[in-house]
Amino acid sequence: MSLASRAFRFGVNMLAVGDITSWRDRVRRAGELGYDVLLVPDHLGIPSPWPALAVAAQASGRLRVGTFVLNAAFTNPALLARDAATVDQLSDGRVEIGIGTGYAREEFESAGIDYLAPGRRVDHLAATVQKARSLLSDPEFTPRPVQARIPLLLGGNGDRVLRLASRDGALSPLAAAEFAERVAFARDAAGERADAIEWNLLMQIVAVTDDPVAVAEEHIARWELTMSPQEFLDLPSVLIGPAPDLAGRLVELRATTGISYITVLEPVCEQFAPVIARLREIDGTR
User: Fold this and answer.
1) Is the pTM of this model over 0.85?
2) How high is the pLDDT of residue 5?
């Protein structure tokens, strides 16, 4: 399988829910715009993901629904398996699980959960994934999911998380050289499975514009960054420019890294839609 042989897939990460009517409307709109997966993050101070996803699955009969990503420290394998299986039933088999170690120390403190050293958080993530997988594949476990194997996405960019992802299965914002090294490490760790894995990248900044340098300068000033506009535009998780150029950049990304699952944040889902349309044409999947 060549790196570019997997068709693109698009997710939108929803950062708020609101009232039931607006939530359903936004979910349906994401489907109309061409997204494949409706995602909800797992942080304190925003809505719980599983109830939100259950409603989203009912609002749209096409979109897959998933977590992006669960904090492994906020759950345990039995509860994770139960919740995922329940929503998989309610969605007729459209659930995907995204999970990571958790990184926001203040959220651990607010929840009264020890913020362990990175290695111990990865240990907990690995144990959670292994046990949840075992439960979901056990024919005696109830509730039973509709899918024989619920897709799993592991979020992170450290060595151990990437090894875990390459064995059981996302990359954080990095400069181009660091990003290339992380991709190479993950693909090497996956070995013969590398082309069978669907690799995901969250685009942190997306702007469809005919003046990318001006937009880059605005972000550099806002965040007080010490880099040139071109260096900012070259960041792998930044997409700024005309829609045709952004589509071309993602085609190149897929060809060089195998990354074909692209996620954006809800505030840019409307303006990213023309890029999705162009990539559907390229893949012949419209």
Assistant:
1) yes
2) 74
